[in-house]
């Protein structure tokens, strides 16, 4: 029986592998961003690319997010497939004009004449004491923009697969990476593969409760799950991966099985992904629910620098355990 | 050639004694008021006195030489004098093409005003009357494969670029036969066929798109090794935009990478009700190019032949790979900012001054005085355009409004972006989906 060949790497290497493969496959794919070339990218996702692909394909830009994102959009409209790196996703707030008005809407306002196959990616989320401005979660800000797809990677496997799929997709896709996950290690297939942009990922099948999460919080959930299992619970954990659109099939099948839902996210409470997800589940699966949908989000606080305060702003495993116990009842 | 051409090109040297002739109320050649303040109390901060030359200190610091600088020639009025055949700036065919394009622009916009007040088009409509020389002067030099971006004042750029009047009018009427299927409207004219990359409502946001198209041109040369003429891009925008961050960011990037893009400032002195002089520390926009090492020029935007001459040089520079140019066109809009603007702030004297420099009247005079065309030929063009515009209105009137099915069709190029529904199928596979009845 042939053994599936695999190789081990870290998540940033997986992203690099995916991006590199797509750049080799299609000469129209290029990278645009600050320090992507000589420096190799803020988290080394494009290390070595400048030498390999040249400086036109790995374009070191001046510090002008709105304009170089707009430039990437103009390039996409005229035949290229740019991958825009936000050195930190937070910097892309400077590019909000272009991302909302042109990236998301231009295909529509042009009556379908132009496609914008850009990928916008970069590190975001709460890191280790990086301060408020470097700890932002832009998924909540961009989720309302019509015309955008948003995915969040969380393992080397899905990072590579989502990167490749996002580049091949004709829609503009925002790929959210997390600062604290770049050094995750995993064995991934040698054979080429992509992940489906619109699908969620089953992390742990279960029967008691559906826990929906994404990005770094997946790991707080799996950590909490160990305690929960010890206490006799059987949680089903789903990494939703696609932040927009939601995979209502995977989520729905789970809700029909467990009848209880807890959402665990790193977004702020107000207007976050959890808020939208909660509302979508209630609308489609109201009859399946045995109780209210729980939602654990970060505090609506600018992320403090000091360690203990920072810890208090994001959801910790013990809070997840408590929430599950409350939703399912004590065992 | 020199007699009727006028180029004031920025030679980026620090020259604190430099003065420039006024091209405004005193008429060309008048050297009264540097900041054109003499006749209008509304133009603030000029501090000039009749008959006195205002000294001007150019920006500080060393400025690297621009890529190329043409000779600066004293401006002479483009009126009256008949030239030798050798001096003529256009052939007959070119002259008639320019005339027809400007008349089309004017007639179309006039019809828009009528249709708006009759309730056929809605929202914000910004008309281009008076600025035709800029659109015609530049765009008639372009090929179909070249690109243009514009602002909300984009109808005439679309027409000059070749988008049929019918499609533009139908778009304005919100019909599904419009160039954007009725989904864009007045401020969002697009045409993939004609290289019109928009139509943008927010000022400044179209400039990076033009730079991006220029990046693609250069990329195709450098990376994909494509041969043949390099497509150039032109970004049109106004004086207000020249204070916006994206303008400066794009000047930097375009010059840095020597992209084949031309930045055309249609300086009509007003950003809605904000006078250019009240919002801009140094109102000479063309001088900002050399700060980035970019070739720049100022031109009389009411004169299509002058515009065309400056444009030719810029297009050639871009096509041969020598990079971008910044061109400031002094122009004027005869109507308010939009059809909703009561236009109460602009001085009657200012309006009268520019009305007297109507670019269509000026070209007509040039063509007739130099016997390039006859009165009858020009009249027949005017008649033809009347018919084209009437036909556009009839077409738009008769066209259907978009059906419900159109609502969701173009949100995503790949409709899988609407996601997977509870039944496990992609929502777009639902037969009811494009009729807008499916859940999203």
TrEMBL record, chain A:
Its cofactor is thiamine diphosphate. Residues 9-184 form the Transketolase-like pyrimidine-binding domain. It catalyses: N(6)-[(R)-lipoyl]-L-lysyl-[protein] + pyruvate + H(+) = N(6)-[(R)-S(8)-acetyldihydrolipoyl]-L-lysyl-[protein] + CO2. Its EC number is 1.2.4.1. GO terms for molecular function: pyruvate dehydrogenase (acetyl-transferring) activity. It is an enzyme of class 1 (oxidoreductase). InterPro entries: THDP-binding (IPR029061), Transketo_C/PFOR_II (IPR009014), Transketolase-like_Pyr-bd (IPR005475), Transketolase_C (IPR033248). Gene3D superfamilies: 3.40.50.920, 3.40.50.970. The keyword GTP-binding does not apply. Keywords: Oxidoreductase, Pyruvate, Thiamine pyrophosphate. The pyruvate dehydrogenase complex catalyzes the overall conversion of pyruvate to acetyl-CoA and CO(2). It contains multiple copies of three enzymatic components: pyruvate dehydrogenase (E1), dihydrolipoamide acetyltransferase (E2) and lipoamide dehydrogenase (E3). This is pyruvate dehydrogenase (acetyl-transferring). The gene is LOC112276394.
Automatic annotation (TrEMBL), chain B:
Its cofactor is thiamine diphosphate. It is an enzyme of class 1 (oxidoreductase). It comes from the Eukaryota. It catalyses: N(6)-[(R)-lipoyl]-L-lysyl-[protein] + pyruvate + H(+) = N(6)-[(R)-S(8)-acetyldihydrolipoyl]-L-lysyl-[protein] + CO2. Pfam families: E1_dh. Transmembrane segments: none annotated. GO terms for biological process: pyruvate decarboxylation to acetyl-CoA. The pyruvate dehydrogenase complex catalyzes the overall conversion of pyruvate to acetyl-CoA and CO(2). It contains multiple copies of three enzymatic components: pyruvate dehydrogenase (E1), dihydrolipoamide acetyltransferase (E2) and lipoamide dehydrogenase (E3). Tetramer of 2 alpha and 2 beta subunits. This is Pyruvate dehydrogenase E1 component subunit alpha.
